[in-house]
Every structure is written in structure tokens, then in C-alpha cells.
Design brief:
It contains 15 helices and 19 strands. It is α/β, with parallel strands linked by helices and 404 residues long. The radius of gyration is 21 Å and the shape is globular.
């Protein structure tokens, strides 16, 4: 047994694949299964195990992927968003650097124990976090053409996969992940593989649309191939996805920095949007979670009540209460945490959000309303307590300890 972050894991008896489908609201799968687009998943739900779990909040990519590979909440591993304010340097930075990690991963521990590990992620922003401390194969679809044996544990990825380098804003970025996984499983036969896709499709297309069903059908074909190769597969998601628009179809936004500047005066609050990453075309850096750093002259209690009364605001908490409720590292979340309701997003000020790239009504995530995610295993699991609060970061526990 391996113990990682106070949880124990059995070594894999057969090749094991854990899949994080970015932005996979459970309805995407149920709609596609209903219309006959996912025959492998339909069979798996009948013969294996289909559960609903909760992701961590903020329901963003980085904190949830790292939670899955560490088997722990952000309070343990330290990654509380895609983006944060660093008071030490006075700058706003991406949380892509492994220096922000405060816990080891299950993948690194398995590699240290002599197991063959492979990681394929869609966007390169995750690669360094997922592969930190891990000996093995680790590359992204986005930078597949740059992969080297020295840095990524593999080279000539495009020849291996047999697909052209995909555009970062495309469904093909995720298909490359699955195609690479099948080729790696056939050629390298890793003991454990972790796959992470992009939510480009989910940001643009609702469950049941032709584009969403086509994405699910593509995914189903590759998962079926991995299943046929004898793999245990655990599938989950980093977060769900919801429409974030008003009746006229335009984004329903609370511009929080603008509100603070009007209420308190400029310079007395700094609003941080942890959804921010280099890929903002499909969401305009608008999500349902924000943190606020207040000047010393402004107590949190002074603003929590007025913020809570804003239309579209669901929850407003002071630092310690937010850290406790959402299992976050308190030193990295500001003085106040704001979570908007299901159909609403939080921005800073209108001038700071470029929405020109939106060619469909805004769909986004970040709040409690995007916390429900699938947790599916292609084996029937006995003894899973139906009253237990399942999390997406239970995926490795189910795949290694229950499915084998």
C-alpha cells in the first residue's frame, strides 16, 4: 500500500486510467446516452458503477485537477484557483508554477514505487502541476510538437498519435488526449494513466446539442478502446457548466470591482477572479467565484451584508469562514469570498473583460451550482456507502482500492 496525503492506495493490478473531463455537467452524458451516442457508457452504467460526486469550490480547472491527482482538497495541496494575488510580491499571477503546491501527488508516489505512469492533458497550463515530482511520460496536446524525452519522457508525439497538432480552441484538443491515450496504452502499457481534457465544447454548447453529443460520442469511442485493452477506467470531471445569461441572452454579470470603487472609493479593494487563465476567448474571464482583498481600513464585516444583497449573489463569506466551508488555504483567498448564483457571473469592471470572442450565449462555472460531477467506474463496486459525500478526488481511491 502507498500512503499519500493521509490516504492509502493499492498498487494497480491492471492498467488503470483516470479521466477528468473538463466541464462535464452530468447532463452532457445522460443526454448523449439517451440518444444512443454513447454505447460504451450505456453498457458501463449497466454493468459498472455510475455515481454523482462533488468537485471542489471554486469549481475551476486547476484546483480540481490537482485535487484529483492528490486525493485531497485545496487546503492540503494549496492550489485554490487558476490565478491568485500574491501579497508578498504585490502581483497577480497564474497558479501554474509547482512552487504553489503544498502536497505530493498520487502519480509521483506511484512512479517512485516503480510503476509506469503517463499523463496527457489538453492545455499546457496543467502539465507542470500534474507532472511535478513524477518520473514518466507527461505532455499536453497543446504543445505535443515540442515534447522531448528529457522534459516530457517522450518525443515524436505527433507521429505516435497520428493526428495533426490541434488548435487550442477546438474539440480536437481533447480528441488528441484520448487518441494519445489509446496509442500509449498499446505501445507503452503504462500502469496508471491520467487524462485531462478541455471544456471548449462545454463553454459553447449546452447538453443535448449536436456539438455536445458529437463530443460525447468521440469520447465514448476512445474509452471503449481503452476498456477493450483491459483497463480499469474511472471517469469524473473538474466542474460542471451552466448558462450565465439574462433574458436577453447577454451575460448576467456582477461587476464587483466597479461596485467596490463606487461604494468605498478607488484603491480600497482589489477583486481577483480565479477563473483567469491564458485561454479566455470562450468565457471572457467571467466565472461564479471571486476573492477580494480589502485595505486595512475596511473591515470585512462592513461589506459582507451589502454584497450579499446584490442581485445574483449567492454566498459571501469572510476569509476564515470561506476557508472552512470550501476547504481552501486561508492565506491565499483574500479577505472576502463571493460566490454568484447559477445564472450569474462575477467580473471586475466592463472595460477589463473582452467579450468580443463570445459567439454563443455565455456558459461558465466556478460556483456551488457547478459542483455536481459524474464519477463513473467500468467495474461494479461493492460497498460504496450511498450516504457518503463522494468527491471527484475519490477517483483514484475507487479505481485502485475498489475496482481491482
Amino acid at each position: 500500500m502507498l500512503t499519500v496525503n493521509r490516504r492509502s492506495y493499492r498498487p494497480p493490478a491492471v492498467p488503470t486510467v483516470v479521466v477528468c473531463v473538463d466541464g462535464c455537467e452530468p447532463d452532457y452524458l445522460s443526454q448523449a446516452v439517451y440518444r444512443g451516442r454513447m454505447p460504451w457508457l450505456k453498457r458501463t452504467l449497466a454493468e459498472g458503477t455510475g455515481l454523482i460526486a462533488e468537485c471542489v469550490v471554486p469549481s475551476f480547472t486547476n484546483p480540481n485537477n490537482v485535487s484529483i491527482v492528490t486525493g485531497a482538497a485545496p487546503s492540503v495541496h494549496g492550489i485554490c484557483g487558476n490565478y491568485l494575488y500574491d501579497p508578498a510580491s504585490g502581483s497577480e499571477v497564474m497558479m501554474n508554477d509547482p512552487k504553489w503546491l503544498t502536497a505530493p501527488s498520487i502519480l509521483a508516489a506511484l512512479a517512485d514505487a516503480g510503476h509506469k505512469i503517463a499523463v496527457v492533458t489538453a492545455k499546457d497550463k496543467l502539465r507542470r502541476l500534474l507532472g511535478h515530482g513524477m518520473r514518466g511520460i507527461c505532455f499536453s496536446s497543446e504543445k505535443a510538437h515540442e515534447a522531448t524525452r528529457e522534459v516530457n519522457g517522450i518525443d515524436d508525439v505527433l507521429s505516435l498519435v497520428g493526428l495533426p497538432l490541434p488548435d487550442v480552441y477546438s474539440a480536437a484538443l481533447s480528441e488528441f488526449v484520448f487518441a494519445a491515450a489509446v496509442r500509449l496504452m498499446r505501445r507503452e502499457r503504462p500502469d496508471v494513466m491520467y487524462l485531462s481534457t478541455t471544456d471548449y465544447v462545454q463553454h459553447k454548447h449546452a447538453p443535448g446539442t449536436p456539438e455536445a453529443d458529437a463530443f460525447c460520442a468521440m469520447m465514448d469511442r476512445y474509452l471503449g478502446e481503452l476498456d477493450a485493452l483491459g483497463c480499469v477506467i474511472a471517469l469524473t470531471a473538474d466542474h460542471g457548466m451552466n448558462s450565465k445569461v439574462g433574458l436577453d441572452g447577454s451575460p448576467d454579470v456582477i461587476y464587483l470591482q466597479e461596485w467596490f470603487d463606487q461604494q468605498l472609493g478607488a484603491g480600497r479593494a482589489r477583486v481577483i477572479l480565479p477563473i483567469t487563465d491564458p485561454y479566455v476567448v470562450h468565457h471572457g474571464a467571467l466565472g461564479s467565484f471571486a476573492t477580494v482583498y480589502l485595505s486595512p481600513a475596511t473591515p470585512a464585516a462592513e461589506v459582507i451584508g451589502p454584497l450579499q444583497r446584490l442581485a445574483g449573489m449567492e454566498t459571501v463569506l469572510a476569509r476564515d469562514a470561506a476557508a472552512e466551508r470550501f476547504e481552501l488555504p486561508s492565506a491565499r483567498i483574500g479577505d472576502v469570498v463571493c460566490v454568484s448564483a447559477r445564472s450569474t457571473v462575477i467580473g471586475t469592471s466592463p472595460a477589463r473583460h473582452d467579450l468580443s470572442g463570445l459567439d454563443a450565449p455565455l456558459r461558465s462555472h466556478g460556483g456551488v451550482s457547478e459542483q455536481r460531477v459524474p464519477l463513473i467506474v467500468n467495474r461494479r463496486l461493492a460497498g460504496v456507502d450511498s450516504t457518503r459525500r463522494l468527491r471527484n478526488f475519490d477517483a483514484f481511491d475507487l479505481a485502485l482500492n475498489r475496482a481491482q
